[in-house]
Amino acid sequence: MAQRTDFEIVDASLLTDADWTEINKLKRAYEIGEAKAVPKALYELFIDSERAVRILGAFYPDIVREAIRASRNSF
Predict the structure, then answer these.
(1) Higher per-residue confidence, 3 vs 10
(2) 23, 55 Cβ separation under 8 angstroms
């Protein structure tokens, strides 16, 4: 049986080729298992906030959608 990872794309409809490059960086960092690799990859991802939202939305569409909705209601 194949091992299930936490990196399962739920909705890839908005992802660009550049987004897939970032996703692959995150996957490699996770697979390496080095303590600093994943936080460093995440930090680099969040430099571009639009890309970060698209990528997180691909993994967790409901959570991202709800967070955006909640942030709109807080203004």
Answers:
(1) 10
(2) yes
Say if CB 25 and CB 73 are below 8 A apart: no
State the average pLDDT over residues 54-66: 94
Q: How many CA atoms lie within 13 A of 33 on its CB side?
A: 1
Report residue 23 as tokens.
């996703």
Cα–Cα dist 43/73, whole Å: 27
C-beta separation of 58 from 14 below 8 A: yes
**Residues 64, 57 contacting (CB under 8 angstroms):** yes
pLDDT band at 72 (very low <50, low <70, confident <90, very high): confident
Which amino acid appears at position 56 of this protein?
A: L
Per-residue tokens: 69:
């909705």
